[in-house]
Amino acid sequence: MQATGDQIEITLNGEPRRVPAGLTVAGLLAELGLHPGLVVVEHNREILERARLAETPVEPGDVFEVVHFVGGG
Amino acid sequence: MTTTTMQTVRDDPLVIAGRAFRSRLIVGTGKYRDNETMVRAIEASGAEMVTVAVRRVDLDRTKEEGILYHLDPERIFILPNTAGCYTAEEAVRYARLARAAGLNDWVKLEVIGDQRTLLPDVSATIEAARILVAEGFKVLAYTNEDVVTALRLEDAGCAAVMPLASPIGSGLGLVNPYYIREIKRRLSVPVIVDAGVGTASDACLTMEQGVDGVLMNTALAEARDSVAMARAMRLAVEAGRLAYLAGRMPRREVAVPSSPLTGMLDGGPSGA
């Protein structure tokens, strides 16, 4: 991670959030402490396949949904 | 005794979309008091397939774990649901997210039409089923006990149709056995009764209608002892299935004695 200090604003699970500029989605998950194998990421309404997490940059204004399986009937 | 049973009535496995299950009981994973109880209840139920929901990761409480920390998808088949969805579009979105988790391409399709009763929006369910089947999903569709909707869902290509016994979480049991039997008679795909079972006798009675399986969650999660109830449900589903296969005696509105009428001593009411 570059220590430029620049931040961008994204929307993450419905909430505005400031994150370091220059992250990939994989880097964003790492920043959040999430295991990429246990979550699914939707990026601007498109599902982001796991193989593309490390190559997809996080841009200002991006909208992310990060979901996983929880108990349900 | 077990041998005799095996010889007289042989049951086939439950086969959905080409996949065989020995257990005809499917259980949910919601609302348990803790994860350990859930895991032990699933074990006691003998279920080989469990349902899960798709929800946002709770980013503020990092200790909040996903269900896969507690369930091994190698040992138990995970059936993601679209619970909580009120439109076809929303249900399709949740199903796609579930599939992207990489476990399988099955989905328990649920499109709710009414918040109070949680009864399904059947037209939206059929619409979503068509879209998902076209995308290669194995769709197990939750629906009401209406045979016309069940037939439409089968036509749409669903791998199984899952009519309710009574509303979700109500525990009211099987309110319309006639409609459930009619759905089972008319469909070729498996019919799994989903929702409304409250206790073991409900599960047994449901299986006695000849359906292929039962799906339940609240009956286990809200029992005082979830693990004991899970075992009761396992036995009830097996008992109901066996009773169905065995074929019950006819109902008569007159008594028929079980002991011989001949060989009675003199002096009784019919005596000479």
What is the helix/strand order of chain A?
Answer: EEHEEE
Number of separate domains of chain B? 1
Average the pLDDT over all residues of chain B and give the rounded result: 93
Give the full name of the CATH homologous superfamily of chain B: Aldolase class I
* Largest sheet composition of chain B: 3 strands, parallel
Strand order of the largest sheet of chain B: 3-10-9
Number of E-type strands of chain B: 10
| Spatial arrangement of strands, main beta sheet of chain A | 2-1-5-3-4
Total of helices of chain B: 9
What is the beta-strand fraction of chain A? Answer: 35-45%
N-to-C span of chain B: 44 Å
Query: Which outline of chain B best applies?
Result: globular
Distance between the termini of chain A: 41 Å
Return the average pLDDT of chain A rounded to an integer: 92
Using DSSP, what is the number of strands of chain A?
5
Q: What value does the Rg of chain B take, in angstroms?
A: 21 Å
What percentage of residues of chain A falls in helices of 4 or more residues?
10-25%
Structural class of chain B: alpha/beta
Explain the overall architecture:
The complex is a heterodimer of chains A (73) and B (272). Chain A is mainly β and 73 residues long. Chain A has a domain at 1-38. Chain A has 1 helix and 5 strands. Chain A has a 5-stranded mixed β-sheet with strand order 2-1-5-3-4, with no helix packed on it. In chain B, strand 6 (106-109), helix 4 (122-134) and strand 7 form a beta-alpha-beta unit. In chain B, helix 2 runs parallel beside helix 9 (226-246), helix 3 (88-100) packs parallel to helix 4 (122-134) and helix 7 (200-208) runs parallel beside helix 9. The mean pLDDT of chain B is 93. Chain B is an alpha/beta fold and 272 residues long. Chain B has a single domain (13-246), classed as Aldolase class I (TIM Barrel), CATH 3.20.20. Chains A and B meet through strand 5 of A and strand 4 and helix 3 of B. Strand 5 (63-71) of chain A pairs antiparallel with strand 4 (49-56) of chain B.
